[in-house]
Design a protein that fits this description.
By secondary structure, the chain is α/β, with parallel strands linked by helices. It is built from 6 helices and 7 strands, in the order βαββαβαββααβα. Strands 3-2-1-4-6-5-7 form a 7-stranded mixed beta sheet, with helices on both faces. It is globular, with a radius of gyration of 16 Å.
Length: 196
């Protein structure tokens, strides 16, 4: 199988959260860095995806790639198309910055489930696919590009329409997005309890 390029997606508006989700500390470091550290165990190359206004807050160990102007403002699909503009032959392990309960075991099981010739694989949670915990093989790049050109920006719909296979976490509660202050507090309590 082709090596994976890790992509941490940090470009969301965080409107429900009210603060930048990528900078919240659930663990010892900001969530974007915690996520990148997980990916670094599985990927030789890691990139941090964000809006151009965010670039300065991610300076450090990993390359930061701001959405290209033509892809900016369209959600996570813009992050994928931007990274493919710089790395056109990359297969991507894509993880959103707002999954603080995601573990190394979860990501390892996703990567281990890859099958040669498939478009990719993603996690499923509560009967819904998670496009931001997924492998996008290079073979799906043209499909994503075509969808964008047709004004179809939902990665969830693209993956669903093309029958991308899903897997479930051994601990389904790990695959949950911290997308509101209430959810963030709940997750912090879960993490705090797990340390005792």
């Amino acid at each position: 199988m082709q090596p994976l390029h890790g992509l941490v997606v940090c470009g969301g508006q965080s409107s429900r959260m009210g603060t930048d989700k990528s900078l919240i500390r659930y663990h010892e470091e900001p969530q974007w860095l915690h996520t990148a550290s997980l990916l670094s165990n599985l990927c030789e190359n890691i990139s941090i995806s964000c809006h151009k206004e965010q670039v300065s807050q991610f300076a450090g160990r990993f390359p930061v790639i701001a959405d290209l102007p033509e892809y900016s403002g369209f959600g996570p699909i813009g992050a994928l198309l931007t990274i493919w503009a710089y790395h056109p032959r990359a297969s991507l392990l894509v993880v959103g910055c707002d999954y603080p309960l995601l573990t190394m075991d979860d990501l390892q099981s996703l990567v281990n489930s890859r099958v040669e010739g498939e478009y990719g694989i993603c996690f499923q949670s509560n009967d819904s696919i998670e496009p931001l915990i997924a492998v996008y093989e290079m073979s799906i790049k043209e499909i994503v590009q075509k969808a964008f050109q047709q004004g179809k920006y939902s990665l969830k719909h693209i993956l669903g329409e093309h029958g991308v296979r899903t897997v479930s976490s051994k601990i389904p509660g790990n695959i949950v997005s911290a997308d509101s202050p209430e959810k963030a507090r709940q997750i912090m309590e879960i993490i705090a309890r797990s340390k005792h």
